[in-house]
Write a structure and sequence with these properties.
Blueprint lengths: L1 H24 L7 H17 L23 E3 L9 E2 L2 H14 L6 E7 L2 E8 L2 E7 L5 E3 L2 H5 L15 E9 L2 H13 L8 H9 L4 H7 L2 E8 L8 H10 L9 E3 L2 H14 L7 E8 L2 H7 L9 E5 L4 E13 L5 E12 L2 E7 L3 H7 L6 E5 L7 E5 L25 E3 L4 E3 L7 H12 L11 H9 L14 H4 L7 H13 L5 H7 L7 H10 L3 H6 L2 H5 L6 H12 L1 H13 L21 E5 L7 H10 L3 E2 L9 E4 L5 H9 L3 E4 H8 L3
Parallel strand pairs: 2-11, 19-20, 19-21, 21-22
Antiparallel strand pairs: 1-6, 3-9, 3-10, 4-5, 4-7, 7-8, 10-11, 12-13, 12-15, 13-14, 15-16, 17-18
Helix pairs in contact: 1-2, 16-17
The structure holds nicotinamide-adenine-dinucleotide and zinc ion.
Amino acid sequence: MSENIQQKIEDLRKELHQHNENYYLLDTPTISDYDFDMLLEELRDLEAQYPEFYDENSPTVRVGGGITKVFPTVQHKFRMYSLDNSYDFDDLEDWEKRIIKTIDEPVEFVAELKYDGASISILYENGKLVQAVTRGDGFQGDEITANVRTISDIPLKLKGDFPEHFFMRGEIYLTRKNFDKINKQREEEGLDPFMNPRNTASGSLKMQDSGEVRKRGLSSVLYQFISEDIPAASHWELLQKAQSWGFKTSQQAKLCTTLDEVKEFINFWDVERHNLPFEIDGIVLKVNSLKQQRQLGYTAKSPRWAMAYKFKAEKVETELQSVSYQVGRTGAITPVANLKPVLLAGTIVKRASLHNEDIIKKLDLHENDFVYVEKGGEIIPKIVGVNTEKRTEESKEIEYIKNCPECGTELVKIEDQAIHFCPNDLHCPPQVVGRMIHYVSRKALNIDNLGSETIEQLYRERLIENPADFYVLTKEQLLPLERMAEKSAQNIISGIEKSKEIPFEKVLYGIGIKHVGETVAKKLVKNFPTIEDLKNATVEELCQVEDIGTKIAVSIVEFFANSENILMIERLKSYGVQLEKGESTNEVLSNVLEGKTFLFTGKLSLFTREAAEEMVEKHGGKNISAVSKNLNFLVVGEKAGSKLKKAQDIGTIEILDEQQFLDLVEKQ
Ligand SMILES: NC(=O)c1ccc[n+]([C@@H]2O[C@H](COP(=O)([O-])OP(=O)(O)OC[C@H]3O[C@@H](n4cnc5c(N)ncnc54)[C@H](O)[C@@H]3O)[C@@H](O)[C@H]2O)c1
Ligand SMILES: [Zn+2]
């Protein structure tokens, strides 16, 4: 019995750790917050019943985040805690009772919105922003000062009568408007849209290029002042002061003297939240008096003086009218449920994503079923269940389509991903358009002014069918298009002309060989400097290139086996598009590594492999791909394996760690 319990506890911990990693480090959760909290609750109950299985690393005890290797790690002077959750008023009443038990006097609460973003701690010294750190695991976080400086509503300099040294804590979030803007742009660039504003905000903060962070348009709200000397007696006063120093504090915060007032605030925002320009996932309640806060103290994970009240995802019932199937630009099929329009979380919902066949099977969806629709963390509502009592006898099971709705080709199913796709990539309309949109995108041929709508129009008018057709377009053909002015037509033509200077590696990425992304394209060009070389390469030869496996190699060989692709390449070549590696434009920084060969192995943490190889070249060295007597230096990261052993066996190879490599480069 107790063995089973222990197993159950360990399984839950493992599962929750994985969800924490998905949520905090990868910014792509796979379950809803509510489901996550229910699992955590289950674990907490079990741990309370069986204290013999206590573990200080349990997700019930530790804050779920972590630190990355990309940013410097900073210890928090004051620990950053999580918040306890409650989902109903009974929970809140219990909380108040516990407080009254410790504090035998009247208690006031500050009710605030619970902004759904990522928390941050910012150090101010003498009125200036000095350092900004993520929550991380609560004890230490990532130092992301440069990124936080780009957020326009965070003051770099304070005004008024501020203390000399203190921390301000708050939340970095993304407004719905900026989130939509980012996704619209991603769509134009042929990238997958981001899932929700919270994960996008958190992911943005961890980007390495602050310029890119600035473009995301993040916002802040600051809700807690922390320091050794506190210039006030209550949280409410501190909020007023913080505002006077120039911080953006919550405009909706309210001082409540009774729990009834708190409930009123919660009920109001449960409805009104849908009209806010940003997302909130609940309300945060804090005991107002700082003296009382100190009396109450902390549990292992959260303050006893604060409580989050989380809103439940709204759920409604409506009728399924039909299922339709969308073909994406990569050929992937997405089934979509068309619903009888219904009001949900402030918007009219008419459609819900069904993701794939497995989900339809799991729901056991029938024609005209009455379904429950929920809006969770994701923007697109989803069907979470079926009211089978309302199902009629004659209602038939939903049967997944066998052929592409756009071109009629028989669909192929990728088993391990449960996804169907249309294999007719050369002639299926959305795929043809998708390929051309990809070709002009910023990281490929970067043809400005040629947006996806124009490409769709040109395709409809039968003026273009593959990327080579761009190069024979004339201004006269463009002008009759909708909303096309003389100037924009001219810009498109010059943009196309300019794309002939784009280097081969970007062209290679742009022509859209399946599985050939930006990085793979770069590697290929290094090893196969002309398109002819690449066309003639065999699977075995391709597989010898680092990081290129059979899947990519086969896809490349298949691409060049197709005569239509060959024709397109020949045409691109005749128009003057770069299909060979140009003269190395790599600027030379020094020749300290001249005549020396390098190889990197293991997991690198100070730089990426690509950056390292570039450094070698810029300083006159050469990268080689295998351990042999010709190798001078092997640079090893974490978990270096067989290459390290082989190098040690050879005996003449100098082994460096990452820092030693940097020292070597900088020894000029
Ligand atoms: N779906 C998943 O896979 C998954 C995984 C891990 C965590 N989660 C979600 O995250 C939650 C746990 O995360 P957590 O520990 O960050 O706790 P939390 O998000 O429930 O609450 C703590 C955080 O609230 C934020 N906050 C927003 N407004 C605030 C305000 N006015 N005052 C104070 N704090 C405010 C702060 O960033 C603070 O760190 C869980 O409840 C779960 O819903 C989901
Ligand atoms: Zn098709």
